[in-house]
Design brief:
The complex is a heterotetramer, with two copies of chain A (158 residues) and two copies of chain B (84 residues). With 158 residues, chain A is an alpha+beta fold. Chain A is built from four helices and eight strands. In chain A, a hairpin with a 4-residue loop joins β7 and β8. In chain A, α2 runs antiparallel to α3 and α3 packs across α4. Chain B has a five-stranded mixed β-sheet with strand order 2-1-5-3-4. The longest helix of chain B has 11 residues. Chain B is of the alpha+beta class and 84 residues long. The chains are: A alpha+beta (158), B alpha+beta (84). The interface between C and D is medium-sized, with 29 and 17 residues.
Chain lengths: 158, 84, 158, 84
């Protein structure tokens, strides 16, 4: 299930829902992404963030996250998958994104969660704008994020 | 009617979220659409046409600039994604 | 922090404690291992488990888990790490093990959680005995678990 | 005094958790300790000595069978670990 929302989420509640939905799972992996106060990007080393604004493309966002989840479901044996992404105005230490995966074995749950996060970063239409007390600018995409998805493509002929 | 959406830094620079446009018969690809938008609005060139990192989606799927447009397509221009 | 306990744990609570301890984290990964009802090992394909008994070596268990956590802390930039492993008598769907890792970036949090689980499986002195309604036997170690730690060793000269 | 712990299937087969033993002067390695325990208890041989997957820890660290023992060591015999 996929949710795009302005509200916060409770990881404990989400974990228990995933656990119930997963049936006879042996492994559950959760990932949560948080707003960092000091964002060490190439543009702004050491800048202290006051707010982070998240814009998205309604419709395409849900569609692209569903596509990523479906791809993960074809590559690994998953019993349940959950993605939540927040949009709007966030503050340091706020939760931004949650991915939960359940599987019989830990290898699949870990790989799928990581795959979903890697593709979400580069293929789902979200954009971050960060504001300090003095400045405001759109976050540039990380080279490391484009590189991260390449290793999944190398494995696509397995 | 073509619907064109703009997001993030592109939206801010153009000072609009979206616009609607009758697709001229001479415009068949994204590249040609960009040329057409530049002709209508020279500012579009500095914001969008020169940006080689610009992404384009048609009907909510990212496509390349040779993609063939249909008259009621939903087109979107945006910078590389930075979610997560 | 490391805990060996008979009591269950609450993942939501553990996550919030990790989040508080982690300071300016950008990524938190949690892993939880659950008792599967149908355990598809080489010994017992499709057998339905009634209870799972977990034995351990007090003293050595804590020591070996601390060693694994310390190794992870040298390999990756971690802001907080937590391991809980239950012992004693468990039932299907019960939680067995929890690993939580927090880091500035997701790559480190994912890799460290996976590394800790891989080493925990083969290097921490726990033993599982499973009982169905008709039979009872000690679980044999999985070949896949020994293989899993090899990839970390290949990377040890990075 | 040497303290010897047995765990899991080894513990069950030997029907004991642990025992204490004065280390004979002739015994300096794990291999020699196993031979000594077999001499004391022939059942030990079928349970432990023939098991090539058997692990041995001295003072709570896994060691190989050529490891040199000291007289007050804590020794443990157990099968491969299956936690997690």
């Amino acid at each position: 299930m996929i949710s795009i929302q302005t509200e916060d989420f409770d990881l404990g509640t989400e974990y228990q829902l995933l656990r119930q939905a997963a049936g006879d799972a042996g492994a559950i992996v959760t990932f949560s992404g948080l707003v960092r106060e000091i964002y060490d990007s190439e543009q702004s080393s050491g800048e202290k963030i006051a707010t982070l604004y998240l814009e998205h493309y309604p419709g395409m966002t849900e569609k692209s996250l569903q596509l990523i989840a479906d791809q993960a479901g074809r590559k690994w044996s998953l019993l349940a998958t959950r993605i939540i992404h927040r949009v709007g105005s966030l503050k340091p230490k706020d939760q931004i994104v949650y991915v939960g995966t359940a599987s019989a074995h830990r290898e699949d749950a870990f790989a799928a969660a990581q795959f979903i996060m890697d593709y979400l970063k580069t293929n789902a239409p979200f954009w971050k704008k960060q504001s300090s007390n003095t400045d405001s600018h759109w976050v540039e995409s990380r080279q490391a994020d484009s590189a991260a998805i390449e290793r999944w493509q190398e494995n696509s002929n397995d | 009617m073509l619907t064109i959406h703009y997001f993030a830094s592109i939206r801010e620079s153009l000072e609009k979220n979206q616009e609607q446009l009758e697709l001229p018969v001479s415009v068949t690809t994204i590249d040609e659409l960009i040329a057409h938008l530049v002709a209508l609005n020279p500012h579009f060139k500095t914001v969008v046409a020169n940006n080689n990192k610009l992404l384009v989606a048609v009907n909510q799927t990212v496509v390349d600039r040779s993609f063939a447009l249909s008259k009621n397509d939903e087109v979107a221009f945006f910078p590389p994604m930075t979610g997560g």
